[in-house]
Amino acid sequence: MREFPIKIDGDVDKVIAHCKAKGINPGYRLSDDELLVAITEQRSRAQIDNLVTAVKEALA
Fold it and tell me: 10, 44, 50, 51: which one has the fewest Cβ atoms less than 10 Å from its Cβ?
């Protein structure tokens, strides 16, 4: 498993809510502008791409 923080240029809580509404677990809020993301070998490239798309949508 790989865990890493990503810096969010926007509202982390909005990103989390948007992802969850799409059935995606985006990770955990670390701070006002950081999200801890975990990627495992059980996730497909399509699932990871869906997470990226959902985060971009939430920040648009």
Answer: 44
Domain interval for residue 35: 2-59
Tally of domains in the chain: 1
Rounded to whole angstroms, the Cα distance separating 40 from 42 reads: 5
Could you give the CA distance from residue 44 to residue 59 in angstroms, rounded to a whole number? 23
Q: What are the tens digits of pLDDT across the range 7-60? A: 999 999 999 999 999 999 999 999 999 999 998 888 899 999 999 999 999 999
CATH of the domain at 20: 3.90.1150.10
